[in-house]
Automatic annotation (TrEMBL):
Keywords assigned by UniProt, alphabetized: Membrane, Transmembrane, Transmembrane helix
Domain Band positions: 69-233
Full protein name: Membrane protein
Record-annotated membrane-spanning stretches: 20-45, 51-74
Amino acid sequence: MRIIILLAKVGKKMEEKKTFHINGYIALVVLIILIVIGGYCFYFGVTDESIAMITVSIVLWVISGLFLSSLTIVSPNQAKAILFFGQYLGTIKENGLFVTTPLTQKINVSLKVRNFNSSLLKVNDSDGNPVEISAVIVFKVVDTAKALFDVDRYQDFVEIQSETAIRHIATQYPYDTFNDDDLTLRGNTNEVSEELAKELQERLAVAGVEIIETRLNHLAYATEIASAMLQRQQAKAILSARQIIVEGAVSMTQMALEQIEDGQEINFTDDRKVQLINNLLVSIITDKGTQPVINTGDVTER
């Protein structure tokens, strides 16, 4: 990004501005009247053999022809950048028929909202795991001068910088974790997309482009580690679930002992308390049904 900023500072920055243009319908009527006047002047000049009248008619025809050649049509969501022998005069963004400076080059620029799907990229996340990622970028041109003259082929510039930003963002976050406080590519797609849009806007400001929206549309582990990472995710999920179960079992056991001792005024010996804790923990933690064992006391034979 620093390289882009430095390059922008080295070259002359272009800024969009308005240029001379008038309503084409009114101008067309005026030009037709000038052509007719020029015809009358030429007729009377030839009849009266007046060089001055002939000269006036020729001048009127030349002026009318020059301005007729400058007629331009601007369609909705289109703009025309006007160049006079290589010099940028300005841009016409209004829709309709206009007459502008004669002998100028008119470059059409689309102001429509565009989107493209980035290619599937393989990058390493913050944990070093290879992931496949791609995104949809929605943008539009807001400064025609920068889009045409500050970068070479702004469409290609947008695509290349978008892929660079996607790679950079993907390396800042892990693909997934089991900590709810961590930002991840899979669990926080909205936050990641907003961060991507912010970085893209900084990169593409030099091209006169506004980022409207970015959205991750593909995210997965690379095929070579997909099965291994699936097993790892399953193991982490089991470990996380067991941890919650153990914490709950300890809390329930402690609460049960306190209620038994306080409510029944029973004082357990250390051995009996250890045995009771062991039984409660086993019955709560086990994932299989438990069968109670009733102690009937000692039996003596006669």
